[in-house]
Amino acid sequence: TTKCSTCIFKEPSLLRFMCAELTRGYFLEHDEAKYTERRERVYTCMRIPKELEKLMMFGIFLCLDAFLYVFTLLPLRTLLAFLRLLTMPCCGHSVSRFLQPAQVCDLLKGLIMVLCYFMMHYVDYAMMYHLIRGQSVIKLYIIYNMLEVADRLFSSFGQDILDALYWTATEPKSRKRAHIGVIPHFIMAVFYVFLHAILIMVQASTLNVAFNSHNKSLLTIMMSNNFVEIKGSVFKKFEKNNLFQMSNSDIKERFTNYILLLIVCLRNMEQFSWNSDHLWVLLPDVLMVVTSEVAVDVVKHAFITKFNDITADVSRDFAYTDYSDSVARRMGFIPLPLAVLLIRVVMSSVKIQGALSSVCLLLFYLGMITLKVLNSIVLLGKSCHYVKEAKMEGKLFERPNTSAPKQTPTKPSSEPKMPQPSPFITKQPTPRASTSLPPEPPPVTKETSEAPPEIPPNPVEGSSETPQSPELKHRAPKKDLLEIDRFTICGNRIL
């Protein structure tokens, strides 16, 4: 009787439990903000590929603009500077007074290109290819990883070497000499460009060996190495500045890989006597390399924005609004070594003989100039469109706070102040109609560092600048996106 009464007593409880489990809710409405945020994260990940590729395409076209400049406008500018240098004895002026600083830099760039091109003739590409091909797969995988690290280190230090050379050659002579001279800087720059070109040649040779391997195992291993970037990036804390730097590093890496693929295709087509059927054999491998790069970048940026609560519209907060030659200095992209290697490969792969070949070469050069001009016009138009869309016209002409002259306290006026043009833009020696990165603010001078503390500067929107104490006035100010000027970086905003 006791057992039966217990079963009778538990039966309604069991039914109620089952009924509650089958009909209970999830109480999502009690935490509406939490689940709305998670839905927005999903939408952000879905929008990342489109926004990222828009950013990448704009950055790649900027790199292409700077790269084409080396082949199109730089030779003409160097020729004009050289002709002016030849007429210098007739005028009786010194080099520093007769040549403008931009012309001195053009002469140095042209001389570096010519010397490195002749030095590259002593490097045998075929011997390097067969030397690399004789190594084991694992050894080649390690070599390729070491080359990627070395390329980043060379890009970081190499830009400093080139900038030091240009500044040493154009520095006002009235200042006290604090350098070792132009010739030592020039020798360092020549050796840097030569060694960096050899490094990129070894990268291209390794990629060429992977393309020509029978089982494609080396190519698969090298492409899987890109996914290691996801492990090393997505689980770290990222701010907008860090994401900005990584985006520019990805842009530069992707453009460099496109040039490497072009070099590999040229070398393979030369070996097969320019047979078009072999191009279709190379096309699947080229697509695999490009697809893996795009997939890795999309996954990496999607999870970084998810874990750090960054919106997909962050790419619209970056804008290039400067001249195209600033890309090489701010973006970590140095076109000189890549251009030297490409000229070396093209000259060894394509034989120019006869008048017809010379005419074709001239037409090709005119086509590159046309492409350069059209690319610059398109970039300038897109930049103006995005700047107007973001309502940033006033910020482009605002004078930086750090460069404001010493002023006496005045009563605040209710009249609106007209925006004044940036001093960086007005000091450009050659205002070319192209687009790249935002201008660097002028350095802090003694006059600006001793500004009266009772007039704190009005902080510009989006700036992280804070007033400095007197004992820190000689220290470099804290830099935000507007002032970042190191490896894999650009200016304030990128479109």
From TrEMBL:
Keywords: Chondrogenesis, Membrane, Osteogenesis, Transmembrane, Transmembrane helix. One of its GO terms (cellular component) is endoplasmic reticulum membrane. Belongs to the TAPT1 family. GO terms for biological process: cartilage development; ossification; positive regulation of cilium assembly. It is found in: Membrane. Residues 400-413, 423-437 have a biased composition (Polar residues). Residues 397-479 are annotated as: Disordered. Coiled coil: none annotated. The chain crosses the membrane at residues 55-76, 111-132, 182-205, 327-347, 359-381. InterPro entries: Tatp1. The keyword Transmembrane helix applies. This is Transmembrane anterior posterior transformation 1a. It is a multi-pass membrane protein.
